[in-house]
Each structure stands twice: as C-alpha cells, then as structure tokens.
C-alpha cells in the first residue's frame, strides 16, 4: 500500500488540450488532485475528454496548456516512470496474430519488472489456452489477456479506458472482479474510465465527473455523498436557502421543487425535507447542470449514457 507521504496519483493544474487546426477543445482548465491508493472512477458522457485525459497521463500526447503530474513526475518522463504505469486502452487491444503465450513473452522482454509467475497464474485462472491466437479469443477473453499483460509489469498505477463497455454483463462482471484482485495484490492505484455508472459504483472509492471538457466535481465517493443531498421544498423555497448551500440541479414537480444540493446536509440545518442522494443522482445532477450551461449535450443523452 502507498506510504502516507506518497505523491498524489494525479495533480492537474490548468490542464488543457486542443486538437486540429481549428483548436477543438478536448480539455479546458482542468484542476484536480487525487491522493495515492485510490480506485478512481472517471465518468462522463462520450466525448467528454476521458480518453484524452488518460492519454495525457500515459504521455502519449502532450498538453496544450497547464500541467499534469502522475505519481509525482511528468508523464512518461523516463523508462523507469513508464514501467510504473499500466494502460489498457479502449477495446482492450491485443495483437491478433500473437498467441496468449507470445503476449507474455513480449511483456517479459519489454518490461523490466515483469512478473511471469503472476501472468501465468492469471492466464490459468482466466481459462485461456496459451497456444490460442488472440484474434480468435472472445471479447471477454481479450479483456482478461490485456488486463494480465498490464498488471504483470507490476505497475503502481493501472489506467483503464472504457475496458468493459463492449462486454456482455457476465464478462464485464468477471473483468471488474479481476481488476479489483489485481489492484489489491499489487497495492496499486487505478483509474477506471467509463460511462457505465454501475461499474463505477462497484469498484471505485474516488470520483471524477468530466463533462464539457471540464471537471465538474471530484473527490472521495464517501465525502461527496456525505456533502450532497436531495432536497424537497415548496417552489419558492429554494430562494430562501441559507448561505453555503449550493443548488446543483433542480426539477419542478407540481407545487414542489426537487433539488440536488451541496452543503446543508446536517440534520436540522434546513427547514425542508432532506434525504441522502445516490451516486447516480449526484453524477446526473452535475452532468445536467453542465448541459444547461451550454455544452450542447442533451440532458436525456447524458442520463442514458450513464445508465446503459
């Protein structure tokens, strides 16, 4: 497990990334810090900038502005730093012409900290035939192979970019279970990028909501749930909330307003009905607020992307 004085997994300051001649904004003024030892859920609709953030974290691309440190250093600052990070990109890419065993041989030759015993054990547990060509594996089997190759280098940080989105429910459940086992065995931090909130709820203890190319909210899940609530008040009641209570999202139903708020969650601190908020409600509230402020993303689309 990380030491108390371990550097943050991530520290972003004014991070921005633009693409193309027209300067299409993928990330804008991103600021956040994530302590070591967390399993981070990076959630947001498609096109929010999740893949761009992970590619920056791996050193595959450079920021247009601002800075990002990963494990206390610039991404891909050296071969030694590269060895500390394992990455599973979208669609869990593997080499179709390579056998399962050849993937392990390649991993051993390219990673100085390669743990062959761990890799072979996990291949057996996943029921993979070492002689089988990766191109003939099922989606779930390819995901297990990619996860094994990433973890057998024994990194301090594992990054997963929508790794289970294309898998069927049973394969996705197995992948997430194995992800958790690897994280615990390695004592590593991990980032799971997904628009599937069920996956995030199952395995993550830290949350980053990315929408409209910006971080809308970030923090440990327990703290976020404790600091947010669902408020039910008369329609004009939201105009009389005390200082320090922020309304994230409001829906009007008949004579009452239903709002997700931040602050004012202590019992008796508000003269209205206050109830705990679910992680899904919290995420959708921030996504909807981002949509309302002009992201061009339809609210219903955001909700569907987060549930499917």
UniProtKB/TrEMBL annotation:
What CDD domains has UniProt attached to this entry?
ABC_DR_subfamily_A
Pfam families, sorted:
ABC_tran
Keyword Ion transport: yes or no?
Answer: no
Which superkingdom is the protein from? Bacteria
| InterPro entries in the record | AAA+_ATPase, ABC_transporter-like_ATP-bd, P-loop_NTPase
Write out the entry's keywords from A to Z: ATP-binding, Nucleotide-binding, Transport
Q: Which GO terms describe its molecular function?
A: ATP binding
The ABC transporter domain sits at: 10-237
The cross-references to SMART domains, in alphabetical order and at most eight, read: AAA
Q: Which family does it belong to?
A: Belongs to the ABC transporter superfamily.
Instruction: Tell me which PANTHER family the record gives.
Output: ABC TRANSPORTER, ATP-BINDING PROTEIN
Q: What is this protein called?
A: ABC transporter ATP-binding protein
Q: What is the scientific name of the source organism?
A: Amycolatopsis azurea DSM 43854
Highest lineage ranks of the organism? Bacteria, Bacillati, Actinomycetota, Actinomycetes, Pseudonocardiales
